[in-house]
Amino acid sequence: MRKKLTYTLTIVLILVMVLVGIVRTCKVEDEAGSALPFDVATTHEKRFHHTRYEGLPKDRAVTEIIRYIKKYLYKRPYAHEHLRHYFQEQTEMVRSHTQDLTPDESSLSVALFGDLMWIGKAHPHYVSEVVVDHLHAHDIVIGNLETPIDVHRRVPNLLPDYLTYNSNPNLLSAFVNPANGRLPFSLLSLANNHALDRGVDGILNTMQLLDEMGVKHTGVFPKDTTGKRYATIVQKNIKIGIYAATFGLNFDKPEYRNSIEINRIPGIAPPDSAQKDMSSLENAISQMRAEGVDFVIVIPHWGYEFELYPDPIIRRVAHAMVEAGADLIVGSHPHIFQPTEVVYVNNYKADHAADFYDYQPSRMNDRHGNPRKAVIFYSLGNFVSRMYTPSCQIGVISSLTIEKNAETGATDWVLNGSRFVYNLVPTFPGKRHRLMFYDEYKDLYLLKPTKQNLRRKAEIEFMMNHFGTSII
User: Fold this and answer.
1) Which whole number is the average pLDDT over 88-110?
2) 242, 188 in Cβ contact below 8 A?
């Protein structure tokens, strides 16, 4: 009976999404007959951002499903005018800290990506060779693995399985460099709302698989782990500390806490300043500094799905992370790009006011007192995904270089731009998922100036510009 109900619900949801998608495709055409950019905010827009599943009680989750689907399809760029203006200025700020990637023996090149998600039947060659080569060209590659990979459990392939993930190991092994048999991933965060989709055994088996593949992981720990709640990577005499945490879990049962521990950020889903607690992060960063960590990376699974700007409470949390000592924040969970922000700490470049004629950096102080700058990627969107809207299918690999001063021991960073990837999601049985660079996808599939292609291209390129970093 339960299985029959599940498949009935699947059919109903598919029909709803198809009908809304047809309306979405047919409704917008300007007077000249060309496709409009996707759903630009207007004075009459419905503020779908109020439909938030993060922290929503189960009884309300059922009644909100239609509005949530609309939010998934219509990603309104709603934000207060001052916030839009601020991030427009930040685009110039970010680009002023960007230069070409030049490999060096004394600096670390780092590649960052967002949500690496379940895609069902991942075949072993779904990733373009040039994407694989680009990742392997970096010293360190970091991202969020948002699915268990448990070979002892079924890999789902139907719509309800969007709620309970499990993936085939090909999801990762497709990135292997055939020349040396190695994966490019240095570390993957496991701290996200899907961590326990297959229970405690599912996440423990995932951790074992990553260990066998030679990939470090953090954010989830067996109960008997020592007090260290972060990971470290040491290369070229630079020691990096990585702390990952999530706003919550989809399947959180009290008995789980007897077996594993997961880093969390209380009070951000739903937003509740009274419950917000940063003590775990602050303690971890203090431990890192005592251990001799040179550069601190925080990977928060936060924010709200399908929203183009970070909520004010998320910005406050991000700034609190910088004040606690974070040098780089790599956000995930919204499944679409959000803007990037550069923050100056402890009077960094205080005597360079003339450099900021057209824009002003955000400034703050921390408890350590050393002048530095930090960068916040509020959301890198989806890296690998089978979601069905273009803004969820476009992904990004952002690059930066970390340098260490041999005399003072101080570290600094410079951005190296971004490469955009695209998930070609199969719409018919027998077709295969494909991950390629967006330029390759555009040349192969968007050359014909059809209404659908023009609209898809407009939506994708809006998201790329919205992200606010230089394109390699």
Assistant:
1) 86
2) no
196 CB-contact burial (10 Å; exposed 0-12 / middle 13-18 / buried 19+): buried
Which one-letter DSSP state was computed for residue 54?
T
β-partners of residue 403 are: 107, 412
DSSP β-ladder status, 238-246 and 231-235: antiparallel
SS3 state of residue 239: strand
Backbone Cα Rg of the chain: 22
What is the phi/psi pair of residue 342, to 5°?
A: -110, 135
| Encoded tokens for 468 | 């606010």
Which tokens go with 73? 């399809």
pTM over 0.85: yes
CA 356 – CA 354 distance, rounded (Å): 5
Strands (E), 325-471: 328-330, 337-345, 362-364, 372-380, 382-384, 394-404, 411-424, 434-437
Mean pLDDT of all residues in 129-156: 94
> CA–CA separation, 416 vs 309, rounded Å?
23
The model's pLDDT over 398-420, given as tens digits with 9 standing for 90+, comes to: 999 999 998 999 999 999 999 99
Q: Where are the domains of the chain?
A: 42-74, 80-348+358-465
Q: Encoding tokens for residue 335? A: 């499944």
* Of residues 25, 30, 187, the one with CA closest to residue 111: 187
What does 252-290 look like in DSSP terms, one character per residue?
--GGGGGTEEE-B-TTBTTB-TTT---HHHHHHHHHHHH
Report the first-to-last Cα separation within the chain, whole angstroms.
53
CATH label, 80-348+358-465, candidates 3.20.20, 3.30.450, 3.60.21, 3.30.230: 3.60.21
The pLDDT tens digits for 350-396 are: 766 556 656 677 888 888 888 999 999 999 999 999 998 999 999 99
Instruction: List 296's β-bridge partners, or say none.
Output: 241
